[in-house]
């Protein structure tokens, strides 16, 4: 079977069956998105609707209570969700990354416990990034106390944690200095969340500061970071790609609606109604084309991630390594082009409309602000260089990267550290 045929079968006819379950919720989220944006209101209700529908178990195998979706199917669903509200899609990024890690783990009793938790509606947040730390270091600690294990530290960019039942937390274990992931329950004292993310875009993702003071974590829920699933950087980046593609779909939707409903025209225009103006039609058509290219690129890159997942279970180390390289490169290639496509689309929107489109009540600027923020997470220039280095010199792309104060420099107040593409 050719690669193209295989890729098409991955999305498959079952996608519509899965999507049909969630589209009414996506519509409900879309109907309330403008209110959340205007009031800077966290999407607690939207997240709760997704939890009640068990959306977080989309990737969980059917035998454990999930939908058994492939990665392309998951990311296509996330594009639909991001079209409804890209903030909500971004808020579940950490959840699906932790789910993916558990799906790559041996199917032992403890892994099955996690899969059933996801199927029951449990949601996982993210807490990896720190401030005031040198690059390569981590301050948050997992240590023993009173015969158990506790977490102490503070994280920033804790996307989705404010909504979550569990936290996927990156820390260092005191006893041996090993970097670990601690899956910490939020249903306990010692954990506080602040909605203090002050970005001009993606404002309601719950990406603020989280603090841990002797927060209890079970030993069975402490995992060596070295065992994290190998295509995680590509996976995290794919989330950005589908968020951008969803924003572009929202731009296409909104510009078409605004043009269709617009009554005022310019004397220099081409028709008695804006909807019939051929130049405006051209602008909307160009936006639609940019959106198509962004979505197609994002989904194409998700096929590579699916191949990496499949290779993990093949028992062929060489095949798995090559699949991980391809997943990383394809997600990076997608980032370099999709960011530009969606920023152009969200700016071009205003060329189809008059100055009234700048009204804050319409909040059409949110599309550009959200796209610009998402596109800023991982530096485009570095991704492009890594791609070029591979093509020219065969240099393997990095799977884990960090951010923080440079060597010999004091950590500034806005310094952060992160792994696997988690930095904002």
Automatic annotation (TrEMBL):
Every Acyl-CoA dehydrogenase C-terminal domain range: 243-378
Annotated stretches, region: Disordered: 405-424
GO molecular function: 3-methylbutanoyl-CoA dehydrogenase activity; flavin adenine dinucleotide binding; monooxygenase activity
Keyword Flavoprotein: yes
GO biological-process terms attached to the record: L-leucine catabolic process
Subcellular localization, as worded in the UniProt entry: Cytoplasm
This enzyme's EC code(s): 1.14.14.21
Taxonomy, superkingdom: Bacteria
Domain Acyl-CoA oxidase/dehydrogenase middle: 140-213
UniProt xrefs under PANTHER family: ACYL-COA DEHYDROGENASE (PTHR43884), ISOVALERYL-COA DEHYDROGENASE, MITOCHONDRIAL-RELATED (PTHR43884:SF12)
Family, per entry: Belongs to the DszC flavin monooxygenase family.
Protein name, as recorded: Dibenzothiophene monooxygenase
Lineage of the species this protein comes from: Bacteria, Pseudomonadati, Pseudomonadota, Betaproteobacteria, Burkholderiales
């Amino acid at each position: 079977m050719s690669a193209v045929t295989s890729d098409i079968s991955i999305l498959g006819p079952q996608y519509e069956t899965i999507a049909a379950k969630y589209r009414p919720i996506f519509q409900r989220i879309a109907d309330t998105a403008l209110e959340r944006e205007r009031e800077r209101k966290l999407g607690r209700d939207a997240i709760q609707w997704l939890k009640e529908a068990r959306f977080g178990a989309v990737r969980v195998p059917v035998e454990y209570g999930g939908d058994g979706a492939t990665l392309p199917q998951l990311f296509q669903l996330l594009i639909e969700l991001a079209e409804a509200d890209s903030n909500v899609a971004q808020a579940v990024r950490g959840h699906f990354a932790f789910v993916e890690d558990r799906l790559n783990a041996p199917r032992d009793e403890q892994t099955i416990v996690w899969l059933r938790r996801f199927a029951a509606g449990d949601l996982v947040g993210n807490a990896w990034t720190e401030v005031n730390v040198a690059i390569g270091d981590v301050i948050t600690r997992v240590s023993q106390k009173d015969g158990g294990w506790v977490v102490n530290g503070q994280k920033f960019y804790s996307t989705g944690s404010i909504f979550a039942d569990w936290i996927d937390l990156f820390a260092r274990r005191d006893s041996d200095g090993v970097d670990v992931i601690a899956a910490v329950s939020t249903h306990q004292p010692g954990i506080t969340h602040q909605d203090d993310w002050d970005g001009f875009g993606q404002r309601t993702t719950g990406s603020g500061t989280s603090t841990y003071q002797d927060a209890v974590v079970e030993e069975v829920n402490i995992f060596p970071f070295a065992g994290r699933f190998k295509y995680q950087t590509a996976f995290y980046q794919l989330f950005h790609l589908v968020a951008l593609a969803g924003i572009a779909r929202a731009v296409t939707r909104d510009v078409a609606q605004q043009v269709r409903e617009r009554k005022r025209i310019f004397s220099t225009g081409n028709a008695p109604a804006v909807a019939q103006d051929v130049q405006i039609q051209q602008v909307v058509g160009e936006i639609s084309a940019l959106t198509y290219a962004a979505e197609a690129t994002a989904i194409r890159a998700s096929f590579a991630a699916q191949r990496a997942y499949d290779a993990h279970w093949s028992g062929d180390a060489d095949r798995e390594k090559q699949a991980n390289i391809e997943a990383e490169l394809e997600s990076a290639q997608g980032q370099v082009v999709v960011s530009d496509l969606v920023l152009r689309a969200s700016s071009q929107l205003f060329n189809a409309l008059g100055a009234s489109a700048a009204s804050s009540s319409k909040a059409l600027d949110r599309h550009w602000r959200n796209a610009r923020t998402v596109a800023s997470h991982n530096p485009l220039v570095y991704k492009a260089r890594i791609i070029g280095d591979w093509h020219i010199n065969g240099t393997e792309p990095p799977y884990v990267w960090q951010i923080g104060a440079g060597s010999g420099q004091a950590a500034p107040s806005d310094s952060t550290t992160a792994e696997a593409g988690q930095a904002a």
